[in-house]
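Ticket #4471: complex job returned nothing on first submit. Input attached below:
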Amino acid sequence: MQNFKLKILIFLTFYKTGGVFLKELMSRFWAGEHRALARVISTVENELPGKDDILKEIYTKTGGAYILGVTGSPGAGKSSLVDTLVKEIRKNNEIVGIVAVDPTSPFSGGAILGDRIRMNEHALDEGVFIRSMGTRGSLGGLAKTTKEVVKVMDAFGMNWVIIETVGVGQAELDIMYIADTTVVVLTPGAGDSIQTMKAGIMEIADVFAINKCDLPGADRVEMEVEMMLNFRDDHIKWRPPVVKTSTFNTTKGIAELLEAVKKHRNHLSEKGIFLKRRQERASNEVLDIINYQWERLVKHHLGRPGQVSELLEKVTSREIDPYTASQSIIEWIIGDSGSQKSSSQ
Amino acid sequence: MQNFKLKILIFLTFYKTGGVFLKELMSRFWAGEHRALARVISTVENELPGKDDILKEIYTKTGGAYILGVTGSPGAGKSSLVDTLVKEIRKNNEIVGIVAVDPTSPFSGGAILGDRIRMNEHALDEGVFIRSMGTRGSLGGLAKTTKEVVKVMDAFGMNWVIIETVGVGQAELDIMYIADTTVVVLTPGAGDSIQTMKAGIMEIADVFAINKCDLPGADRVEMEVEMMLNFRDDHIKWRPPVVKTSTFNTTKGIAELLEAVKKHRNHLSEKGIFLKRRQERASNEVLDIINYQWERLVKHHLGRPGQVSELLEKVTSREIDPYTASQSIIEWIIGDSGSQKSSSQ
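Support reply: We reran it on our side without changes. The output follows.
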């Protein structure tokens, strides 16, 4: 009873404030307010009430942004490279969202600090929005939340969404499932020889940036990458361009890097790969939601007393096998939901 | 058409040979033939045709065996300890199956060799059956296949099934989801201090065996374990006994180890934990099968041209959101299967 009262209270509170709040928030979001965008992202990222409604509302407005992934070892200068690349993109007046994923920070503390420092760079530019995300220790959760935040920025009207992430951990390779083009940033120096790079990171590159190209050894890294590409089977389809960049004293290679990304973008469009990928991603997304809904339906049935729990008892006591039991339960769930559907029509 | 002919051919071949073969195999299995048991295990382990029928047929005969897990670091002397324990169990004429899981061997080569050496020990004893399994590099697959092989031995009529595994890798901790009682084997020596044991392995122990107890340092290990147990919250429910064992020159502590296992077994029965666990495992098993069947049903629908693929097109082109699409697809699948069911009745 206590619990029921609590639920009613939460419902009423949300109905009175949350629902109206959400409606107002979204109208400010659609009007292009940066503060509303920040609020919507927080709601999605922190799984606050209204998240599902937001994701449902924004979906049909997504698909306009080009998703660029930038990854590489810690200290490769990814942030500076992204900032300089954004300035280059801004010359065409296209607006840009940056999602900086920091898998090393267990809490958002460090990430927020990073935000503030970087915000100064683009502080006066209304066409750039930066958001840092800590993964809060859950590497598995990275892909899903990042994907959702990218969608929010996409729906907001960004022409580009850049996901910047440190190339460590298997989950980091998931960037290739979100990004349309992935840039892998390498640097000269003993520790960053391609022989020592982690497995998989080289394979996800659509474009290589050899950053800090003023340092000695840049030519050797370039040669190593080109050699590796020579040995690859699939370079007939798309051979990743290798661009030498610098953001240190003089800015170098940034226009060329953007050019390489756009070249890959054209390649994807021309070969129909872009559309095919979008189709696959849409199917996978629908499939994930279907399975999630189904699990909820099953749990609802398994929890109820009656036929299903009697059947489970019989499986426990070895009277029937779980295969036969599963078949019956599926038929009951489907029959039940099917008849509910018919009677509600 | 080619494909269809092939399917018919496979079906007829299996129907003519496989089906009859399976029936004969299972009748020999139920008659208690060791060679038939070996064949059934191979069929299950290697996912050969007939596996599903076998698992379905044996299920109602399972539940009689007590499942004992034995785990510990490599070199802790688990195999010798298990062999000596089995001799102790055999004094009561109870029959024993041993599943030796070797996660370090990517292929079964090493495991088979291990089989042959150990078989000599129990070669003349019809009441012991040993089977080694390599995990073939897939740690994730360990739990499922091991569980299935244990079930086969259980249905065969074993009083005890002992799972012997090296305590490395997260998947190894899964032994606690299969075993009724888990014995963790420790040894004296610098490398095996409990401070250096991997996380989680201490928590899964229902009984501790300090093996090679003739070696110096055995008392220190025992003290460390007892101290750790003193700090635990839940030792009121069950405080794992610590038994010192040796199988080297003179056999020590084996009867005491079996006694400790039986004490835990009684504890599980008396507190109703045994039944509760069996219920949970049965429910989980049914749930797994239900979800697997559902995924097959969904894939079947997603693959067909028509309503569903049109809907996926609309999600790709952002005309509708994936949440609305999922809802419709679930209703179609349920409606479709529901009406098929009604019309077939």
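Residues 62-271 of chain A form a domain with the Rossmann fold fold (CATH 3.40.50.300). Closing as resolved unless it happens again.
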